[in-house]
Amino acid sequence: MTASINDEVFKQFRDFIYEKSGIFIPDNKKYFLENRLGRRVQEMNLKGYDDYLYHLKYNADQKELQRLFDLITTNETFFFREPQQFDVFKGDLLNTISAENAKAGRRDIKIWSAASSTGEEAYTVSIVLLEKPELSGFKKEILASDISESVLSSARAGVYGSYAIRNIPPAYLSKYFSNTEQQYSVSNTVKSMVKFSKVNLIEERDVRVMRGIDVIFCRNVLIYFDDKAKQKVVSHLYDALRPGGYLFVGTSESLHNLTRAFRPVVINKVIIYQKG
Ligand SMILES: C[S@@+](CC[C@H](N)C(=O)[O-])C[C@H]1O[C@@H](n2cnc3c(N)ncnc32)[C@H](O)[C@@H]1O
């Protein structure tokens, strides 16, 4: 059984997590912290959540903060999630971008999966690019990042179970994966196009290394932030894009009422935000 957290400590913990990650835990989700952190408090033989918070604030090295991020993040993802977005990306969007870049004398395309979790989104982008022979003359770079080191190490391994691969068209599954005992390993061709790194989207100094990006996928992560944190993250993404670059958020997410810096473009009912 997980011990309960008192209201005062909950608020302090919630504020600490918010400051470090942008993730906002509302008052009615005290159980979320208890479920996610209770076991860690026990493992460390601490008296309670207040001791764990004290440890994080004053004693801990970056490793424990990293551990906290691993515990509090929700990493649900799968290949070809929200497939309409990938259809638009593969068709109109990549055609426009490759034409624009070629016109500007650029023979490269830079894509960023900004909250990549275990890598399915970034590898989906990789497959889509490989399936676009018109781009063969372009250098293709896919950057992928997350705040959680544990999901990044799974992403680098590139081995998945049946849940993650269920939306992959069968022809791509046989072409880009090897399969042993319900484990699907991404091929080296797909893997070699993606570079994973740790980036905390709320930290300007982390995002600063990302510049000149053509398309950012930042999907199903803004939902964990409050409006203030969303605005901060979206302005970091804006700075990372090249002028005229595009941003995908999750289909249940929107930039409405958050910023006017992006122009919503609608293609086949999919909304993409273009840097003004
Ligand atoms: C639900 S997953 C979404 C994965 C993928 N983008 C998709 O749509 O399938 C959300 C991811 O956001 C990451 N995340 C949460 N806060 C973050 C932050 N401040 N900076 C970077 N990544 C963050 C989590 O670790 C988690 O892996």
Quickly name the level 1 CATH class of the largest domain.
Answer: Alpha Beta
The portion of residues forming beta strands comes to 15-25%
Low-pLDDT windows of residues: none
Q: Helix and strand succession?
A: HHHHHEHEHEHHEEHEHEHEEE
Bound molecules: S-adenosylmethionine
Question: Could you tell me the number of beta strands?
Answer: 10
Categorize the overall geometry.
globular
The radius of gyration is 20 Å
- How are strands sequenced across the largest beta sheet? 6-2-1-7-8-10-9
**What is the CATH T-level topology of the largest domain?**
Rossmann fold
Q: Helicity range of the residues? A: 40-55%
Number of domains: 2
